[in-house]
Amino acid sequence: xxxxxxxxxxxxxxxxxxxxxxxxxxxxxxxxxxxxxxxxxxxxxxxxxxxxxxxxxxxxxxxxxxxxxxxxxxxxxxxxxxxxxxxxxxxxxxxxxxxxxxxxxxxxxxxxxxxxxxxxxxxxxxxxxxxxxxxxxxxxxxxxxxxxxxxxxxxxxxxxxxxxxxxxxxxxxxxxxxxxxxxxxxxxxxxxxxxxxxxxxxxxxxxxxxxxxxxxxxxxxxxxxxxxxxxxxxxxxxxxxxxxxxxxxxxxxxxxxxxxxxxxxxxxxxxxxxxxxxxxxxxxxxxxxxxxxxxxxxxxxxxxxxxxxxxxxxxxxxxxxxxxxxxxxxxxxxxxxxxxxxxxxxxxxxxxxxxxxxxxxxxxxxxxxxxxxxxxxxxxxxxxxxxxxxxxxxxxxx
Length: 398
Ligand SMILES: Nc1ncnc2c1ncn2[C@@H]1O[C@H](COP(=O)(O)OP(=O)(O)OP(=O)(O)O)[C@@H](O)[C@H]1O
Ligand SMILES: [Mg+2]
Description:
This protein is α/β, with parallel strands linked by helices. It has two domains: about 1-315, 3-Layer(aba) Sandwich (Rossmann fold); about 320-395, Immunoglobulin-like (Sandwich), CATH 2.60.40. β14 and β15 (about 380-385) form a beta hairpin. It is built from 13 helices and 15 strands. It has helices spanning about 15-30, 45-50, 70-90, 95-105, 110-115, 115-125, 135-145, 145-175, 185-205, 220-235, 255-275, 290-300, 390-395; strands at about 5-10, 35-40, 60, 65-70, 130-135, 210-215, 240-245, 280-285, 320, 325-330, 340-345, 350-355, 355-360, 370-380, 380-385. The relative contact order is 0.13. Helices cover about 45% and strands about 25% of the residues. The structure holds adenosine-5'-triphosphate and magnesium ion.
């Protein structure tokens, strides 16, 4: 069984790094071999733990290790073949060298490569708990949808692309004035796609891997967290807790009285919006959260009533039930509005769009000939009914 993996994400500056560091200190204290790893290209985990971290795990306490993955190293390891090829392609199209180099790395790729480190840590057997300090929401979200895309490429595009290239390579090469990808580029992408799929399996293992959303009691921050929650559900990742950090305590006095009233209102919104996912709170401290003492104060507040390593909520957000005559897919999309959802099914692929974000769900082969016959949106869940009748009639005809 792999290690318990907890990913913290949220808007910039809300306290992700502090919460990740304090969680790790607590699980290590509880006797679990813990690694806290930062995949945010702008690291601040060293400052938070007040320890010198490196690109490889460094021991920072009893049973506690920290790591700040170097995105550049990971990029070279996984992407250099593709980067060279794309770079050449852009240069031949008249893009200058420096811009070409920038363009050959899609935004968010650096964190993606850093996250791939999780695979080796999972396989190593060295850890009971891995806590991940992720980059701010937008980036992470995009990254989380990568494995599906990778799977699609590897299964659909690559086999054909390779055949075409093998057949028409030399001719195409002489006809087109762009460098065609070499076998080495394909090998890179294929390896990468496989890594992404493996990582996706780790992250979708709901008994071991969960995501926790960190926010402040501030309307815009909560709004963004709500959207993230919807998309995480859509992607099939389990959110097991919501952290509200920097809540003004009573002691702040009359100057902040109005702030406190507002925060109370916002906290009600959080509770009603994310229920039944547990909401963990921490106060706005009178000083920065850095170093052992402050981190442990934060840990005490957050995990007063909860085990940091437990899966704090285990709801299945996407369910598929198959019967003789049809099937039903239930997707929990807490904040999506009915008008924002569209569906399309091609073969085994069901494409669901919510607010412009896209998710491709690969249905089991048994549903190949099933057609979505009805989609209803109620109480934060999308229910798609698939009709299996056509299958038997068409197979009889065939
Ligand atoms: N409960 C708290 N009370 C007071 N200060 C806090 C609290 N939590 C975090 N801080 C401080 O707020 C700042 C931002 O926290 P942190 O670095 O953990 O946020 P982050 O979400 O990781 O930010 P980034 O998006 O930049 O990585 C830090 O200076 C930290 O010490
Ligand atoms: Mg941070």
